[in-house]
Amino acid sequence: MNVKSPAFYHIEAILTSVVWGTTFVSSKVLISHGLTPEQIMLLRFILAYVCIWLISPKQLWAKSWQDELLFVLLGLSGGSLYFLAENSALKFTQACNVSIIISVTPLLTAIATSLVYKGERMGRALIIGAFVALVGISFVVLNGQYVLKLNPIGDLLTISASLMWVVYGLILKKLQQREYTSVFVTRKVFFYGILTILPVFPIMGEGIPWDELCDFTVLANLCFLGIVASFLGYLAWNYVVNQLGVVTATNYLYLNPLATFITSSIVLQERITIVSLIGSLMILSGVYLSQKKMQH
Known about the structure:
There is one protein chain. The protein has helices at residues 6-32, 37-53, 65-92, 95-102, 105-116, 124-141, 152-176, 182-197, 200-204, 216-244, 246-250, 256-267, 274-291. By secondary structure, it is mainly α. Helix 2 runs antiparallel to helix 8 (182-197), helix 2 (37-53) crosses helix 10 and helix 6 (124-141) packs antiparallel against helix 13.
């Protein structure tokens, strides 16, 4: 396949979204093994940073101090603050609940982008697709197998994470105009994500969980989160956003709950019901509709 074909970037967005959908379950497993949200975030980003350093260009700093500040904000919004909120939410509620609530991100991103950037607007296809996908997400949650136990703390933390990702997308769009490579941008996200999460450890009185790192399950999940979901995932995502635009790319995050649901069913041996299958089909239909250009 020609890598310059738009279809390639759409497939890349789908695969990245599916991988990220499984991370909720993986993070939940790590939390059940005694790791804290900040420990999970730090360890996965350290792994990702080591990997990307091997392929990153020699350029260390941005072209201006203003751009460098934007990269700091990028590391905060898409790194430390996002994962601190998301992983903390997993301590209070189910992985599926977090995935469902976080799935409002594409809609929030479309609204925020249309307000901040005048060239962007919400078309009928996006609105209809978003509605169908959100209804499908509701079916997946309320499928007779799960009981949606709303938790104010978990919900607020998840909404905060969603808002952080919206900010990340807006800053990423702004940095597109500066002509930085995807590898450079991704490396900066990891670096400032690590740097901004470090102050949390003295406050919480924590360190590196060396004993837990001897557990194969812990190591396997950390490698998945750090190398696959972070290193490869962020690199692919930043490249996709650069090619497709922040609204189109972020719209694929509607697939997150579907991936989370399937992974939870496999890992936790939970039964897939007919209602959940209908919901899954609606999510896929919503994503498809949102990407179509409707005639006005």
